[in-house]
TrEMBL record:
Molecular function GO labels: catalytic activity
Pfam families: dCMP_cyt_deam_1 (PF00383)
Protein name, as recorded: Nucleoside deaminase
Residue ranges annotated for the CMP/dCMP-type deaminase domain, each copy included: 4-117
CDD domains hit by this protein: nucleoside_deaminase
Species, as recorded: Streptomyces mimosae
InterPro entries xref list: CMP_dCMP_dom (IPR002125), Cytidine_deaminase-like (IPR016193)
Amino acid sequence: MIDAHETSFLRRAIGLAAEARAGGNPPFGSLLVGPGGTVLAEERNTTVTERDISLHPELKLAVWAGRELDASTAAATTMYTSCQPCGMCAGAIERSGLGRVVYALSTEQLRALTPPSAPPAVQLDGPHLLEEARVPIEGWPA
């Protein structure tokens, strides 16, 4: 469970989501709270207005954290977000070293609230060329 203080941060993330939607973007918002309880940064989804599919608020904050926070501060920082991060954002959050994510809606709850979408049209074909592809990867990270 989260306490009243954390609830206020989660409500702020929901408010940022409302602002994103009012601005013509998908309704998602997030903020980072540092180890001392101070809001370090806030973001809204801007994928439509900036015409960039990667501009999810969670991804923008993970990139910011990876660039601006040292490892120990990042590990003690919490992201509060209006919805469970997608796969792209979850990968970036993991790489940024953030310590915790608190979200309002789960992916399943989001899907129940939104119209069904068509499955991706991209066809994946692989893996191939294992012996060649492994050469630049072996020993990394060193």
